[in-house]
Design goal:
mainly alpha; globular
């Protein structure tokens, strides 16, 4: 959160004297992207469910928090932190980096900002790591089109949370109690 959200936000506001809204944290124009968001969700959530329930690599990897199945409280706290870090990730790659690069690179910034985003997926299951390239390009294009990171944040978190839930269901590990026992 500090490196992907707080520090870039300080650079934008205190250093450059710019508005955070100009770097993706402003209002999203739903008119410009609602169909893309819906199509992405309709494609990705079922694909995520299939991957999480039928691919042992995903089953062994997700959820990343080892105690997510221990209790509903653990799962809820994990997912809240997980979602928060996606806000930071979307802001950094599709807000800060993309909009900074666009000043000198124009639309090519979409591809350049996708490179470190894809690299951040090294070590994850191979289909996800490879998919992050197309996802990065799509989410950056959506951010440019809508002027906001919020559509990418919605898609990214929906896919991630559905992956965790599907993996827990597939492993029959959905928490059966709210609080962890000793």
């Amino acid at each position: 959160m500090l490196l992907y959200l707080v520090l870039p936000a300080l650079i934008i506001q205190a250093g450059w004297k710019e508005k955070l809204g100009d770097f993706g944290l402003g209002r999203m124009s739903l008119r410009s992207c609602w169909a893309y968001c819906l199509l992405a969700l309709l494609a990705m959530v079922p694909s995520t469910f299939l991957a999480a329930t039928h691919n042992t690599v995903f089953l062994n990897y997700y959820p990343m928090y080892p105690y997510a199945a221990r209790s509903g409280g653990d799962l809820l706290v994990w997912e809240l932190f997980y979602v928060a870090q996606f806000l930071a990730i979307e802001f950094f790659f599709r807000g800060f980096a993309l909009n900074t690069l666009r000043l000198s690179m124009g639309s090519q910034a979409i591809f350049v900002s996708t490179i470190p985003y894809a690299i951040s997926h090294f070590g994850k299951p191979l289909p996800e790591a490879l998919g992050s390239i197309a996802a990065g390009i799509f989410l950056a294009t959506l951010a440019v089109k809508s002027g906001s990171i919020w559509s990418g944040f919605l898609i990214h978190t929906s896919v991630a949370v559905s992956m965790d839930m599907a993996a827990l269901v597939a492993k029959n590990q959905l928490p059966s109690q709210w609080w962890p026992t000793a």
